[in-house]
Specification:
alpha/beta; Trna Endonuclease, Chain: A, domain 1; 2 domains; six-stranded mixed beta sheet; about 25% strand
């Protein structure tokens, strides 16, 4: 239910074992140090068969990992833009040392079909095709979408519960590690279409976000727009302006 990470990884929470415990706090506009060869240097995590773009908050640490390559100062947001994919969720790993990272930054992929930044597979997010792309650009809202529905969910109750639990666990690991440029409003939007209030409520919570200006919002199968505190945001669904304007006013 989550798009593959770095082409091969399906479970974001498997990266927990590669955190050092010294969680680096960083935001979109902070400067980091990356290593340039033909492209930005990556570190392979062999056990997970994925590559992670390395970035460092300290220049000397970057130099010590650079070998014969050059070290460049770069805004985290620019590094995110340079390493964004249209196929998979990419990863930046901060402050690599002895097989561990101080933190990860997940880079949502830009989907060519829906023209949106996603962390769920395209076929889970077809509803986003209804978004007016011109209005979306004009209103300046920065958004990343995750969509879940019953299409690929197991019918067996036990397996269904296990699948939902794993998705909640992965999202809880990913959402605090996604960064966006500041817009008229900033949202990580979870579209919940499970047609079951109890299952949907499992996703609705207060998530910490990497950038303090970003808020996680939820759209339920009843088309209610809610915050992590279950506060309902009233909106007019006739057009995108009617949906985005209350969010922009709220965040301003």
């Amino acid at each position: 239910m989550i798009q593959k990470i770095a082409k091969n990884l399906k479970r974001a929470s498997h990266l927990k074992d590669y955190l050092s415990g010294n969680e680096a706090q960083i935001s979109f506009y902070d400067i980091v140090y990356a290593i340039e060869s033909d492209s930005f240097l990556q570190k392979e995590i062999n056990e997970l068969d994925i590559n992670v773009t390395m970035a460092f908050t300290n220049k000397e640490d970057a130099i010590s990992n650079s070998g014969e390559n050059s070290v460049v100062a770069i805004m985290l947001g620019k590094l995110i833009q340079e390493t964004c994919s249209d196929e998979c969720i990419n990863l930046i790993g901060l402050n690599y040392n002895n097989g561990k990272f101080d933190n990860f930054v997940f880079i949502p992929f830009f989907d060519k079909l829906t023209k949106q930044y996603l962390i769920s597979p395209t076929d889970e997010s077809i509803a986003l095709l209804s978004i007016d792309q011109k209005s979306h650009r004009h209103m300046g809202v920065q958004a990343t979408f995750f969509s879940i529905n019953n299409k690929y969910m197991p019918e067996d109750i036990e397996n269904r519960g296990e699948t939902l639990g794993s998705i909640v666990e992965d999202l809880s690991f990913m959402i605090p590690r996604i960064s966006q440029p500041k817009g008229s409003a900033n949202i990580l939007c979870l579209l919940l279409n499970l047609e079951n209030k109890v299952e949907e409520k499992a996703f609705i919570r207060m998530y910490k976000t990497l950038d303090e200006y970003t808020e996680v919002l939820f759209v339920t199968s009843e088309l209610k727009l809610q915050t992590g505190e279950l506060e309902e945001i009233q909106y007019n669904g006739a057009n995108l302006e009617g949906i985005y304007t209350p969010i922009i006013k709220r965040q301003s």
